[in-house]
Each structure stands twice: as structure tokens, then as C-alpha cells.
Specification:
There is one protein chain. By secondary structure, the protein is of the alpha+beta class. It contains 1 helix and 4 strands, in the order αββββ. The chain has one domain: Pantoate--beta-alanine Ligase, Chain: A,domain 2 (2-Layer Sandwich). It has a 4-stranded antiparallel sheet with strand order 1-2-3-4, covered by helices on one side.
């Protein structure tokens, strides 16, 4: 007696239930705005780093120009100067303040750089502030009659 037993087939569930879909949408609804906020914060930080790097290049360029003028024999003096320069397709504003120090013949040069002219008023608002100490005259330059 070969009698076959009927095979019961279980009903296989296909797809997701409505509750599962709603939970998944809730998780996405919470996670996506947080991720977008984080991405925006990172982009702002990257832009600030880029601005400060370019401003530092402008400040260093101004310092090198000052050192070249000194090496050419120009006598540096105390005072305040400002200007603008085009760098990397953007206009940058710089301000240099030279003031005497307690050491005779030595000036402290403070160079500030910003992308807005109104931000040059203090080191807190400028993107970069660079300090350098240079001799006022021909001190230490061989062949100019200054001190060795």
C-alpha cells in the first residue's frame, strides 16, 4: 500500500508588513536630517580651512616682500600700511602695522589678512594674523656698514 500522504505547504510570507515599512521610514526620517546636518557642518569647516590657508599664504607673501625690500637696502620704519591683493581668484585685504620694540633697531611687524575690509580692525576678526621681527636698517647685512 503505497498511499501518498498529502503534503502540506506552508504559506511563505513574501514582502514586508505595513508596520515594518513604517518603522523603516521612521528610522530613515530621523537619520537623514542628522546626516545632512553633519555633511553641511563638514563642508563649512572645509571652506573655513581653505580660507585660512589662502589668507596665510597672502600674509606670508607680504612678509617675504618686506624681507626682500629690507635685503635690497630699504630702511624699514614704524607705521601702518594696508592694501589688497588678488590671490587664487579672490581679493584679499591685508594690513601691516610696524611698531618699535624695546630692543634698539628692531621692529615688530603684524600682518593681518581678511577677505572683508571691515574684518582687518583686530586680530580676532581677521582670518590670519602673522607677527615678525625685523631690523629697521642695514643691521647685520654684510657690506652695508651695519653691525655684523
Amino acid at each position: 500500500m503505497n498511499r501518498q500522504m498529502p503534503i502540506r505547504r506552508s504559506v511563505l510570507q513574501q514582502g514586508f508588513t505595513l508596520i515594518e515599512v513604517m518603522v523603516a521610514l521612521l528610522v530613515l526620517g530621523i537619520a537623514l536630517p542628522a546626516l545632512m546636518f553633519q555633511l553641511g557642518t563638514q563642508l563649512d569647516g572645509t571652506q573655513m580651512i581653505n580660507n585660512r590657508t589662502q589668507a596665510a599664504w597672502v600674509a606670508q607673501d607680504q612678509l617675504v616682500l618686506l624681507q626682500l625690500r629690507q635685503a635690497a637696502g630699504e630702511n624699514l620704519s614704524a607705521g601702518e600700511w594696508q592694501g589688497e591683493v588678488l590671490n587664487a581668484g579672490r581679493l584679499w585685504y591685508w594690513k601691516r602695522n610696524a611698531e618699535p620694540t624695546p630692543a634698539p633697531g628692531l621692529l615688530r611687524h603684524t600682518i593681518r589678512v581678511a577677505d572683508e575690509l571691515t574684518e582687518l580692525s583686530s586680530a580676532d576678526t581677521a582670518l590670519v594674523s602673522l607677527d615678525a621681527y625685523l631690523m629697521t636698517g642695514a643691521f647685520g647685512i654684510p657690506g652695508t656698514g651695519g653691525a655684523p
